[in-house]
Amino acid sequence: MIDDGKATTRDARLVAIGAGALLWAFVTLASAAQGQIFAAYHGRAQDWWPTLGYTAAIFSVWALLTPPLLKSADALLAARLPRWAIAMLWVAGYPLATTLHVALFVLFFWPLYGAQPSTRWDMVEPVFLANVDKAAFAYLAVFAAAHLRRRLRARANAAAPPSTPAGDDVLWIRVAGGSHRVALAEIDWIAAAGDYAEVHAGGRSLLTDRSLAALAAELPVAEFARIHRGAIVRLDRVREVRRLGHGDASLLLCTGHTLRLSRRYRENVAAHLAL
To answer: Which CATH code is given to the segment(s) 170-269?
Structure first.
C-alpha cells in the first residue's frame, strides 16, 4: 500500500516535471522559429526540421539540468546570505552551468553532430560559441523560475489557513492534494527543504508546503526543539550528544541519523540534554 504523503508528493513532482517539459518544448519551438527568421533575414534560409532537431537537442540538456539547478537555487535562497553574496553566486553559477551543459551536449550528441570535428574535444568550442545566446537565455529562465517558485510558495503559505490540530498529540500536515495526520510521538525530526519542510516520522518522510518556522511554532517546546536553522528534533529521540567545540554539538538519534546542533540554538535544548 502506498503512503498517502508519498503518493501526493510523487503526483506533485510528476506535475512539475510535465510542466517543465512543456515549458522547454515551447522554448525550443520559439528559439527554432527565431533562428529561422534571422537566417531568412540575412539571406541564409535553413531547413526547418534540422534546425528544430538541433535546437531540441540543445534545450533537452538544459531541461535535464533544470531540476538540480532549481534544487541548488532553493538551497541558495534559503541560506539567508546577504543579497550581494547571492547575486555573486548566481553570476558565478552561469559559467559553471554553461560548461556542464556543453560537456553533456558533446557527450550525448557527438554521434549525431560530431561529423565535422575530429574529436569530442574539438566539438566543444564550436558548440559553446554557437550557443552563447541560448545558454544565457536558458540560465536566466532557470533563475526566473527559481524566484517565481519561491514567491508563489511564500504567497501560498501566507494565504493558507493554519493546519487544524486534532489534539495535543497530533499534527495535521498539508501535503500536495490534501492533509496528512501524524502523531507527534511518531515524529523523529524535521528538516528544512527550501521554503518547505520534510517531516521524518516512523521511517517515512512527508514533504509539507509549510516552512520549518511555522511547524516549530505549533510543536510543544517540552518535546521538540529547533537545533539548527535547518532542523527540529524530538528531544526523546536523542541518544547521544557529541561536543564539537565552540558551542556546537552533534546529536545522534535513535534512528541512526546525526544532526548538527548550532550554538545559536543551544539554549533550546540545554535544559533537556546534558550539554
So the answer is: 2.40.50.1020
